[in-house]
Amino acid sequence: MQKKYDIIIIGSGISGLCCGALLSMEGKRVLILEKHFKIGGYTHTFKRKGFEWDVGIHYVGSVHNKKSFSRKVFDKISNNNLKWQKMNENYDRMIFPDKSYDFIAPKTKFIEKMKEYFPENTSDIDKYIELVSKVNKTCIKYFSAKTLSGISEVFFRGYLTKNFLKYSNMTTFDALSKITSNTKLIGVLTGQWGDYGLPPNESSFVMHCMIVNHYFDGANYPIGGSRMIAETIVPVIIGNGGEVIKSCSVDKIWVENGVIAKGVILESGRRIRADNVISSAGVANTLGKFLREEKNINNYKNNLIKVKPSSGHACLYIGFDQSAKSLGIEDTNLWVYPSYKHDNNVKKFRLNQNSTFPLLYMSFASSKDPEWDKNHPNKATMEVIVPSSFKHYKKWSEEPWRKRGDDYEVYKEKLSNRIIEEVYRYCPHLRNKISFYELSTPLSTKNLANYEYGELYGIDHNPERFSQKWLKPKTPIKNLYLTGQDILTVGLAGALASGVLTSSVVLKKNMFKKI
After folding, report:
1. Contact indicator for 267, 470 with CB cutoff of 8 Å
2. Which of 56, 130, 210, 471 would you label with 110, given CA atoms 20 to 30 Å apart?
3. Residue 64: exposed, middle, or buried by beta-carbon count in 10 A (0-12, 13-18, 19+)?
4. Same domain assignment for residues 314 and 302
C-alpha cells in the first residue's frame, strides 16, 4: 500500500465497489479495504464440496433493459464485462395454504394475472398500480435532497422531499387498506415483503413501491454467479490505479482535532493517510465503532437511537448431486406463507421461534445461471431463507466462527431439519435427493458481514427511517462520507445508486447525469 491516497473506502460491498470504480475513473487514487477474506460484501459466493452458493444476490430487476439506470451503472463500472441472464417471466410464486399466485413480467401481464386471481377487485388493482407508479416518481427529488448541506439544504429539502414523505410516512398496510378491503389481495400484493425485511404493518409504503416497481419488468441473474459482480468491477478499479485489499480490518477512522478525517487506523495500529474517507460499512459500524472515540460529534452519533437494526435470517444452503434439469428445478423463486396475514405470522414467530415460519423463501441459482452446468457439472443448489432473531443465538455470539460448540450445532441441525421438511412439502420431487446442506445464522452474518446483530438489511425500512435527514453521504466531519444501503435503500440497486450518490458529493459533480 502507498503512503497516501486521495480516497480510502471502508468495505467492498457494491456501494464501495461502485464508489471505487467511479472515483478511480475520475482520476482519484483509491484504496478499498475489506475485513472479510472475500471481496464483494453480499455479492460474494462461497463453495463447499463442489457446490457454490450466493450469500445475498438472488435476483435483480431491470438490468436486462440496457437503458435502465442500474444497467448503465453496471456497464460503466464493469467496463461492459458484467453479463445478465433474464429469468423466466414467472419470477416469483407466492404460496399460501389454499392457493398459489404467480408474479409475471412484464407489468401488463402482472396486472392481467392479478385480475384473473381477483376478478372482483379489478378497479382496486388498477388504483394500486397507478399509486405504485406515482410513489416511485417522487423518489428522484427525495434522493437528490441527500446531496444537499448547509443553506441549500435549509431552503430546498422541504420542497424536494414533501411528496415522498407523504407516502413514506404511511405503512404499507395503511396505504393498501385505503385501496381495497380484500385482505387476501393485500396479502398477495405484499408477498415480497421479505425483500425489504418488514411485514405490511411495519414497513414504509415507499419501500414496498420501490421493490414492486423494481421487478415489474422482470428479474435477472448475473451470468457466472453473483461473484462476477466483484470480479468484473475490481479490474476496472485496479486498471485505473486503484487498490483493493481483503482481510484488512479498519479499527478507527483517523480524525484530527475532532473535525477532519485524515485516513484510517487499521487493527494492526498502522495509519494510512487519505484526503477523503468513505465508509460503506453501515451507519452503526461507522458511528458506533469507527468513530467511537470522537466526542465532538456525540449529537450526530446519537442519531443511531432513531433507527433500528433490521431483522436477522437463517439460510440453509442445499446441494444436489444431479443437474437442475434432471431434478426438475426451475428458476422461479418460491415464497411460502402460513396465512395471508403477514403481520400476525411474524408476531407469532417472534414470540416463539418453534412456531410456523412466517416466511420461507427458496431460490435456485443453478437454474438461473446459463453457465452453471459448464462450471458445476451434475450439481445443483438452492438457498432457503427464513427469518431468525439474533437474540436466540446471543449465548453463542462470543464464540469463534465454526467453533461455537456442540449445543450450537445441535440447535442448527434441528432448525435445518425443520427447513428441509418444508422444502420436501413444497418441492416433493426433491425428497431424499439432498446430498449436502449447511446452515448460516445471524451469527454468520455478524462474523462475515460485520453487522453487530446479524442484520440482513442494515437499518429497518420503517416510516421513521425515511424522515432522518442525517442519512446522507456528508457527515459533520470534514472529508468523511457515508455510502451503502443505509443511505438510500435496501438491495443491490439501492446500494449501487448510493455509490453514485456519494461519488457525486465527493466529486461535486452530478454523476447521475453523466451516467
Report:
1. no
2. 56
3. middle
4. no
Domain boundary among 169, 190, 214: 214
* Residue 295 pLDDT > 90: yes
Torsions phi, psi of 273, nearest 5?
-90, 145
**Spatial separation of the C-alpha atoms in residues 23 and 28, rounded to whole Å:** 6
The Cα 10–Cα 430 span in angstroms is 42
Q: What is the DSSP string of 42-99?
A: GG-EEEETTEEEESS-S-EESTTSTTSHHHHHHHHHTTT---EEEPPSEEEEEE-SS-
The residue among 108, 67, 66, 106 whose CA lies nearest residue 84 is: 66
- Determine, yes or no, domain membership for 302: yes
Q: Do 183 and 244 have their domain in common?
A: no
The x, y and z cell numbers of residue 72, run together, are 448503465
Within-domain flag for 57: no
Q: What is the DSSP string of 230-287?
A: HHHHHHHHHHTT-EEESS--EEEEEEETTTEEEEEEETTS-EEEEEEEEE-S-HHHII
Neighbours of 39 (CB within 10 A): 22
Instruction: Look at residue 248 and tell me if it is in a domain.
Output: yes
Cα–Cα distance between 111 and 132 in angstroms, integer? Answer: 12
Distances (CA, A) of 128 to 201, 354, 434: 17, 35, 41
Domain that includes residue 428, residue range: 309-448
Residue 389's pLDDT band, with cuts at 50, 70 and 90, is: confident
SS3 10: strand
Check whether residue 152 and residue 206 sit in a common domain.
yes
Verify that 362 and 313 share a domain, yes or no. Answer: yes
- The answer to whether 175 and 134 have CB atoms below 8 angstroms apart is no
pLDDT digits 0-9 by tens, 503-512: 999 999 999 9
pLDDT by residue (tens digit) across 407-421? 999 999 999 999 999
Closest CA to 75 of 83, 433, 151, 338: 83
The residues with which 481 forms a beta bridge, in sequence order, are: 278, 474
Confidence of residue 60 (pLDDT cuts 50, 70, 90): very high
Q: Do 399 and 318 fall into the same domain?
A: yes
Q: Is pLDDT of 478 > 80?
A: yes
- Let me know whether 141 and 259 are in one domain: no
For the whole prediction, is pTM greater than 0.85? Answer: yes
Q: Where residue 510 sits, what CATH number does that domain have?
A: 3.50.50.60
Q: Do 444 and 496 have their domain in common?
A: no
The helix (H) or strand (E) run that includes residue 448 is helix 442-448
Our count of domains for the chain comes to: 3
Does 351 lie in the same domain as 395? yes
Q: Which residue has the cell 397507478?
A: 130
Domain boundary among 214, 242, 264: 214
Helix (H, G, I), strand (E, B) or coil at 454: coil
Domain presence at residue 98: no
Other C-beta atoms closer than 10 Å to the C-beta of 352 total 8
